[in-house]
Amino acid sequence: MHRYARRTAGVLAAASLTVGLAACSSVASVPADTSGSTKGITIAGVFGNTFDPFWTSIGCGASQEAKKLGVTYKEFSSTSADTAAFDQSFNSAKLTNPNGMFVNPLNPDQFVSQYQTLMSQGVPIVTLNATTPPSQYKIVGTDVTHLDFVDDTVALVPKDASGKLAIINGVPGLVPVENRLNPVVQAILKGRSGLTALDPVYTQFDSSKATQAVSSLIVANPDLQVIVAADGPDGAATAAAVKAAGKAGKITVIALDATPPEVAALKDGTITGLVAQAPKKIGAEQLSTLVDFLKTQKTPSAIKPTSDTTGIPQKLLTSKNVDDSANSDWVYTASCK
C-alpha cells in the first residue's frame, strides 16, 4: 500500500508516543552460529493489518524462505493497523531475543529509537520503507522509481475519456502508499486531459465505508469516468460498488495491489487493471537479507545504519496476463498454502 507525501499530525504524534514509551527497553540477542551456516539463526517478522492479504503474503514469503534456508522464523502480526497494535507486536518480538528483525509498520518512523538501540547491540533491522533518520540495516520493499508499467496503465483508460476521476484511499499522509498512487494518478491525468480529479476520499481501509463512498460518488457525479483505488480493501470495495451500480465496463477502475477479491473483479471485467506489488518476494528477500548478514557476523557488534535499498518491481496485471505463471508472485494470497 502507498500514500501521499505528507504525514498527518495524528500519525506522527502516536508514533512519537510509542517511541517514547518503548525506547528504554533493551534486548540482547542470542549469538547465531557464524561459521557460514544458518544454524541457530532466529528471525522475527513484525507487521500488521493482516486483514489485507498484502501483509499476509509477506509473512508467507518469509516463512517459505525460512524453511528453504533452515532458519527459525517467528511472526508477530495483528489484524489491526493502529500504532498501539504495532507497538505490542514489536515489543513481543523483542522479548524473544531474535538475531535479526524485519519490521513493517504503516508509519515508517514509528520505531526509529528502538531500531537504533537494537542496531547498536548487533541486531540487524530490515524495513519495508526508509526511516528518518536512517536507522535500519537495509530497506527491502517495492520499487517506486522504475515505473515502466505506467504508460500501459494509462492506455487502459479510453483516449476520449472526459469527466471526473475519483481517488479512493485509506488514510492521508502514508508516504509508502502515495509513492505508488501519485505517479499512476498523475500519468492518467496527463495522458487523458479531458479528466478532472475530484478530492480524494479516505476510508480508513474500511470496506463498508469505501463501498458507500464510491456509491455516493457515482450518484453525485454522472460524468465519473475513472476511479483509482489506492490499496486492496479499497480496490475490492470500489469494484463492488461499481458492479452494484451497473457501471462495470463503463467506469474504468484502476486499483493498486492484487488481493483475491480484486483479482476476481479483474477477471470479470469490473476492474480494468491492477498495479501489483510482489509481497511474497518482499517477505522472502527481507528474511534472506538478514540471514546473509548474520551468517558472516562473527560476534554481535554495533551495525551502521544505511539507506541501502533492494527494490522489488511492480507489475501491471490485466485479465489477459493475471493467470500467467510468471506473474504468480504478484498475486496476493489470503493465507499461506
From TrEMBL:
<keyword id="KW-0732">Signal</keyword>
<protein>
    <submittedName>
        <fullName>Ribose transport system substrate-binding protein</fullName>
    </submittedName>
</protein>
<feature type="signal peptide">
    <location>
        <begin position="1"/>
        <end position="28"/>
    </location>
</feature>
<dbReference type="GO" id="GO:0030288">
    <property type="term" value="C:outer membrane-bounded periplasmic space"/>
</dbReference>
<dbReference type="Pfam" id="PF13407">
    <property type="entry name" value="Peripla_BP_4"/>
</dbReference>
<dbReference type="GO" id="GO:0030246">
    <property type="term" value="F:carbohydrate binding"/>
</dbReference>
<dbReference type="InterPro" id="IPR028082">
    <property type="entry name" value="Peripla_BP_I"/>
</dbReference>
<dbReference type="InterPro" id="IPR025997">
    <property type="entry name" value="SBP_2_dom"/>
</dbReference>
<dbReference type="InterPro" id="IPR050555">
    <property type="entry name" value="Bact_Solute-Bind_Prot2"/>
</dbReference>
<comment type="similarity">
    <text>Belongs to the bacterial solute-binding protein 2 family.</text>
</comment>
<feature type="domain" description="Periplasmic binding protein">
    <location>
        <begin position="50"/>
        <end position="296"/>
    </location>
</feature>
